[in-house]
Amino acid sequence: MRDLSDRGLERLLVAGAGLAIAAELADVLAGGGLQFARRRRFARATEGLDASAHAATVKRMRRDRQPTSTRSRMVGVALAVVAGLALALAIDVARTGGPATWLALHSLPAPYVPLGERVDIGGRSLYLDCRGEGSPTVVLEAGMGSGAGSWSTVFGELATTTRTCAYDRPGRGSSDPSGRHTLAGTVDDLRRALDLAGEVAPFVLVGHSHGGDYVRVFGARYYDEVAGLVLVDTFDPDLHTDWIHPLLGAALLPEYEANMDGLRSIVAQVEDLDWPASEQELRAASVAGLPIEVIRAPRGEPRVDSATNEAFADAIIAAYESLSPGRVHFELAWGAGHLIQIDRPDMVIAATRRLVEAARAGSG
Question: What topology does CATH give the domain 117-363?
Answer without folding.
Answer: Rossmann fold (3.40.50)
